[in-house]
From TrEMBL:
This is Adenosine deaminase. Its cofactor is Zn(2+). The record marks 233 as: Important for catalytic activity. It comes from the Bacteria. HAMAP family: A_deaminase.
Length: 363
């Protein structure tokens, strides 16, 4: 099948692995409205589904990471009870399974969901229960999916060690890693070295949002000082790659190190356009990095704000760069290789699910 035959509908049938998806960025607009009504949250900017969906999409497309993050106040605002957290987590799994995502790591910041009096342990309990129930329901409908959790600390706050400890407490119950997120400028990852050291001391994995709204120093610190296993976004690594008029690429020392060490890039094309990290999908460094054999992966970031799915993200890349089935398979296997579950679990999903299903599509 040629790239021209890779329609959105065809891509929806492909198995997918997702590493970078924010729980509070993926709510259904109708759910936001219903949860707001149930909780008495009266700050929503619209009171109908279409109007609310339009608000999130428009507000997020701001050209600024800081402004992109502002609409999250509304989704977080309606996620302050065990019931709301369970529902959002359950529907997250339901929506991902409907898009044929077979493995997902979904992240959220527990510290943002305690305004209603919940402890952070109770917050994580509710989300994990929602994921588990969602997996069972999807399986009963013939859509097998594995969903694991990353707990995130906000980089402008000072609770990262507490969140890292939370990750370790729940490591055998569905939490597979740790992350820091939020505005990059002025909040370097090195502010949280104690949290990263704690994760390393406990033989645990973590990723860091870096190189999205800030440049190479953010990526350098995440790798050299913090020891990140993966990079959230990392688009600014392109600043360390020089491409000649003839198309030859010369990698700087940081870019070469990341490629040599097979550091995974959790790339989120649509989101990167919205935040102004890149001008358009066609200008996204994804293709350059893919051609240079960096370990690039395709991700949604925030499905509500970007009005997207994994299928849409892949289709946009196909439209921009002419990818075929073998390319999409490679990106999917890249993601599965980079997941924070055990090697045996990763290999089983690659060999028993991803490769056989792509073999059917490739013909």
């Amino acid at each position: 099948m040629t790239a021209s035959a890779l329609t959105l509908q065809a891509i929806q049938q492909a198995p997918k692995a997702l590493l970078h998806d924010h729980l509070d960025g993926g709510l259904r607009p109708a759910t936001v409205l219903e949860l707001a009504e149930a909780s008495g949250y009266d700050d929503l900017p619209a009171t109908d589904v279409d109007g609310l969906a339009s608000f999130f999409r428009t507000a997020a497309h701001s050209g600024s990471l800081v402004r992109y993050l502002e609409p999250f106040a509304h989704t977080v605002g309606v996620m302050q009870t065990p019931e709301s957290l369970h529902r959002v987590a359950y529907e997250c799994v339901e929506d991902l399974a409907a898009d044929n995502v077979v493995y997902a790591e979904v992240r959220f910041a527990p510290e943002l969901h305690i305004d209603g009096g919940l402890s952070m342990d109770a917050v994580v309990d509710s989300v994990l229960a929602g994921f588990a129930d969602g997996e069972k329901a999807a399986g009963a409908e013939g859509r097998s999916i594995v969903v694991r959790c990353l707990v995130t600390a906000m980089r402008h706050q000072a609770r990262s060690l507490e969140i890292a400890e939370l990750a370790i407490r729940f490591r055998d119950r569905g939490v597979v890693g740790f992350d820091i997120a939020g505005a990059e400028a002025g909040f370097p990852p090195t502010r949280h070295l104690d949290a990263f050291e704690y994760m390393r001391n406990n033989n645990a994995r973590f990723t860091i949002h870096a190189g999205e709204a800030f440049g190479l120093p953010s990526i350098h610190e995440a790798i050299a000082f913090c020891g990140a296993d993966r990079l959230g976004h990392g688009v600014r690594i392109v600043d360390d790659i020089k491409v000649s008029e003839g198309g030859d690429a010369k990698l700087g020392r940081l870019a070469a190190l990341l490629r040599d060490k097979r550091i995974p890039f959790e790339m989120c094309p649509s989101s990167n356009v919205q935040t102004g990290a890149v001008g358009s999908i066609a200008e996204h460094p994804f293709d350059l990095l893919a051609r240079l054999r960096f370990r690039v992966t395709v991700n949604t970031d925030n499905r509500l704000m970007s009005d997207t799915t994994m299928s849409h993200e892949m289709f946009r890349l196909v439209e921009a760069f002419g990818y075929g089935w073998s390319d999409l398979q490679r990106f999917t296997i890249n993601a599965m290789k980079s997941a924070f579950i055990s090697f045996d679990e990763r290999l089983a999903i690659i060999d028993d699910v991803i490769k056989p299903r792509f073999a059917v599509l490739i013909g």
